[in-house]
Design goal:
Helix 2 packs antiparallel against helix 3. By secondary structure, the protein is mainly α. It is globular. The chain is built from 7 helices and no strands.
Length: about 150
């Protein structure tokens, strides 16, 4: 019985610790400093991204730069709030809980751990910036949009 209580207590402690971190991250990502940091980065690079199966080699360089920038900002901000915070441990937690997580905070966290999510974020940003949102009723809407925007 004592072992069960200890397991439940440890599980709750892990969940509470994780929830506290997520709460802090939510505060960080709505902060204008973070929003500006992310938007500035995306503004510098969004034009490079294209919606196609094949990825350009430079996408990975941009992904690595983005990951480093955002991760460092979040980690620095979290360390100010929680001196015992470990990004390495937190990223392991995110990977374990990936299937049960949803919402804006997790989309941002996944964007610096998952290249496909990162690329989709850039393509969405590009579509918003260029006013080119795909028309799902047209099979080749991406190509048409590219042609319209390039004229």
């Amino acid at each position: 019985m004592a072992e069960e209580e200890e397991l439940v207590c440890n599980w709750n402690d892990d969940n509470n610790h994780f929830d506290v971190i997520i709460g802090h991250i939510e505060d960080i990502i709505i902060d204008p400093e973070f929003v500006n940091l992310q938007n500035d980065f995306m503004n510098r690079h969004y034009e490079i991204f294209e919606e196609c199966e094949e990825n350009k080699l430079e996408y990975m360089d941009i992904f690595n730069s983005y990951t480093e920038l955002i991760e460092k900002h979040i980690e620095t901000s979290l360390l100010r709030r929680m001196p015992e915070f470990s990004m390495k441990d937190f990223l392991k937690d995110i990977a374990k809980r990936h299937s049960e997580l949803e919402g804006d905070v997790f989309d941002i966290l996944v964007s610096f751990t998952d290249f496909i999510s990162f690329k989709e974020m850039f393509l969405d940003y590009k579509a918003a910036k260029t006013g080119c949102t795909p028309d799902l009723s047209i099979q080749n809407s991406t190509k048409e949009c590219s042609l319209i925007n390039s004229k």
